[in-house]
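Annex B.
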Amino acid sequence: VKSTSLGLNMSIQLFPFQPKPQNAITIAVSSRVLFNMEKEQQIFEQQGMEEYIKYQVAHETESFSPGPAFSFVKALEAVNAQLRELYPESEELFDVVLITNNHANVGLRLINTINHYQLVIERFCMTGGNSSIGYLKAYHTNLYLSADPDKVHEALEAGIAAATMFTPDKMTEVSETQLRVAFDGDAVLFSDESEQIYKAHGLDKFFEHEKAHENKPLDHGPLKGFLEVLGKLQKKFYAKGHRMDCPIRTYLVTARSAASSGARALKTLRSWGLEIDEALFLAGAPKGPMLEKIRPHIFFDDQMFHVEGAAEMGTVACHVPYGVAQRIVRKGGKETSPVVK
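5'-nucleotidase, cytosolic IA: predicted structure tokens.
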């Protein structure tokens, strides 16, 4: 029996019922973000598939250590526990699906690790190297997290909210009772319309454009839908009198300036019928220090230098490769997706 942030006592079932995919908020995670599989990935890259499978089978009784998505998944489970207490019959819950291109022979080690940590993950897709897009669509996926930027790009092209997750050098301690999700605005929640103006014409033209279009809502970005489902769940807690101690909290962390370009962002959210709990307009200042104070389980941004800055300060950050700024680093004259170590 655990006490939650709502002050409720509940018994967490070992095998709670699974909601139907069409009713659930489906979060698909790859095995490489849920668990730390760096050593195994090196074996695969250096020695090939057969040696990789042999190693996994030989070590299948050894649990993987947690990866960058682990705390996020645990927070989803904590929210589910509180939703079940307030709405026992509802299937409007987070449903975590493990998506991996691993061979099925590796499945036993993954299952053993999930059981070791008592994670509530009943749905697996082990695709044996094939594309996972069809499975993501079949599960009505609301968010897909992977360590592979190519798979993330493929998912975004298919209209699925997705992001590449990186492992910070140090992991900031995060809440076990409140899910905290932080979003950048442009090219994440919103389209990259305004960012295109900034990239093409500079800051002054950007401010002019935003002022002239202040009352015209921005088009939606790739993660608008995920914010929508979070807001829908928040309203279920509000309806039971838990606005002030809601176990879901959302943040807008943007490089926009409040006075010169913040109004359009807030008016866009309002036009969509969405609320954001906290909005931080940083006017170009680094996001890492603010995120260190927020301590989100996950942060989404379209620009790698913000992702890197967040990761350097211990935040689990995800790159959304969408819009005009998705490739900003050049190596040997070629565009490339940078890697956070």
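The CA atoms of residues 29 and 145 lie 5 Å apart. The two ends are 39 Å apart (CA to CA). Further annotation is deferred to the next reporting cycle.
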